[in-house]
Every structure is written in C-alpha cells, then in structure tokens.
Amino acid sequence: MTAPPLLLASTSPQRRAILAQLGIPFEAVAPDYHEHDPPGASAVELVRKHALGKARSLAAQAAGRPVLGVDTTVVLDGRSFGKAVDAAGAAGMLAELSGRTHEVVSGLCLLTAEWEIVEDETTAVAFRALTERDIAAYVASGEWEGRAGAYAIQGLGARLVERIEGDYLNVVGLPAVLLVRLLAARFPGLYGIG
Hints:
alpha/beta; Maf protein; seven-stranded mixed beta sheet; globular
C-alpha cells in the first residue's frame, strides 16, 4: 500500500526540507488560520493551540490524508520570542539570548477524519556569549528574517550556538522525533517507520 502524502499546514521551507529528508511524502498548503495569543497563556499552550488550529483549517481538504500542523516559538525566562520585525529587533533578541540557554518549543498536531493528536516538544539551546560584532554580522546576513528567535541554527546561526539538548530538527522547524514516533504508532510500516 502506498502511503498517502501528509497534508502539511505550512509554507515553511524548513518544514518541507525536513519532511523530504525523512522521506515522508507530503503536500504543503498554507493554513487558513490566524494566530491569536491571549495574555497569560504559556508557550506550550500557545504552540499546541496554533498547531491544532492550522491542522483543523485544512481538515476539509484532506481527502483521506493525515493533516500535519506545527507551530514553534523560542522561550527565554517565560517570554516568547517570535519573528523579529526588523534588524534592530533581531539584534535585540540575539543580545538577550547571548550567553544564555533558551527553549525552542513546538506544538505538533496530526489529525485524520477519525482522530486528532496534539503534542509538544522542547529543545534547550545554549548560545555562546556574543559580541556586538557577532550580532551585527549575523543581522547583516539577513538570515534572521522570518525566524522565531531571529536565528536559523541550520545556517550561519550555528555560529551562535554552544550546545543543544534535545531534537536538533525541532530547532530547525519541525519536531521530527515526535512526528516519527506518532507515524510509527498510528501508521505502522506505512511511511517506512514502525
């Protein structure tokens, strides 16, 4: 039996690249979902809620395929760092992350017409102490654009990182260990897993 492609509720190039790397067939579609972050909600609550909302927004288009929704944020001292709006904002985020350990928190929703699962994954990322020159050079690269926490670990952002604990691909943009575990449990052998 041929595995049906996952319907990925995302246009993220990183998420598409990870699924391709894992050999999981998929079709990427922009979700019809608008994020709203109520005050006082935890990062875990928010990423789970957003992953579920993204997946549910495409459920009617699934045509028998599993739908995958993912949402990721960077958290330091209980505060979420989304995407910087400009270079100054990116520099400020990087300065705050410098020499400290933050968390990359992702929510993942996998759903079919019969069931839906929502889980989360957290990876700890320690930045080395960054100089003003380090930050300026990284911001000048433009790689921070469109990235939670204003960095991309799979690119030049690797220079900023001292160590990680947990799923590296979660930091890139998709909690792959969690996804593989869910696919193995729910679809044993179908995606070449389990």
